[in-house]
Amino acid sequence: MPDHTGNPPNAPSSWPEAAHDLIHTRQTILPKRLLPPGPDAAQLHAIVSAAAAAPDHDQLHPWRFITVPDAQRPALADSFARALLERDAQATPEQVAQAREKAFRAPLLMLLVVDAACGDADIDLHERLISAGCAVQNMLLMATAQGFGSALTSGKALKSTALRSLFGLQAHEHAPCFISIGTAHTRKPAKPRPSPEQLLSSLGGAV
Q: Which of 65, 166, 184, 204 sits a CA distance of 20 to 30 A from 43?
């Protein structure tokens, strides 16, 4: 049973402070600033285990992650190039080269995949995406705790035929973002974050 503070039994009194520091330390580090080393096998296991602790209505497990090892980065680069040309047949060689280069950033690169069809159909895509977002945040926090930098990246390429074909995605599967993790080469100052007063209101007006 939880104690009078609502914490699990034997929870350290330092938990609130530690959680605050971890959450507020996390920041987005652009993939081009994420260099080796990345997580080793044990660290990756801990990162994915953190994802498994996310809220998940009816335990659908509606999300999964696909890593992109070094040997597959050229194939991903080709899919980025084809995705750009799908959208803009007049793209310049320089633009195509820039699209290809994105595949080689960050030592650990994973694609988030969300299944809109598994399990109970009454649990709609929005709820599955919220669960996936919680899973990803858990991963980013664990990576931060391990000393790594991280980022989420998205874009039109994620909906392209080229990329979806490369990852073998089915019609009912969505790819919201890539997750990049590595050692931060440089960091920019943290951006201001909204205050609780900006985010919180009360039904019926202010208290």
A: 166
